[in-house]
Amino acid sequence: MPPTSTSADDKQAGQDANQDTGQDIDELRTEIDWLDGELLRLVKRRIEVSQRIGAARMAAGGTRIVVNREMDVLARYRELGPEGRKLAMALLALGRGPLGR
Ligand SMILES: O=C(O)C(=O)C[C@]1(C(=O)O)C=C[C@@H](O)C=C1
């Protein structure tokens, strides 16, 4: 139920600090657990796809690393700041596998 006489900021702060009940927290944790499962599934799929591209490229005499494609991936996560960069680097490293590290 939204408060009627607070500013948008107060409203947000109230929701963050006071309005998440124990039940809300349980539901939010359930959502976090589901999201982590989905993220793990997607990361595993990304690894498979990345490794397939790498194997095909190397079988055709290409390189394991394609710098401009890696720059595109880093740019995609830039909105998340320094931790987004780390995340993108981790995704790239996972796709490259041990030989690319
Ligand atoms: O896009 C490619 O060509 C890939 O090989 C995929 C990928 C990636 O995981 O995003 C992996 C290695 C390359 O250096 C660049 C990008």
From TrEMBL:
The keyword Isomerase applies. Residues 1-25 are annotated as: Disordered. It comes from Actinophytocola glycyrrhizae. Keywords: Isomerase. Residues 19-101 form the Chorismate mutase domain. GO terms for molecular function: chorismate mutase activity. NCBIfam families: CM_M_hiGC-arch, PRK07857.1. It comes from the Bacteria. Pfam families: CM_2. InterPro entries: Chorismate_II_sf, Chorismate_mutase_highGC-bac, CM_dom_sf, CM_II_prokaryot. This is Chorismate mutase. Its EC number is 5.4.99.5.
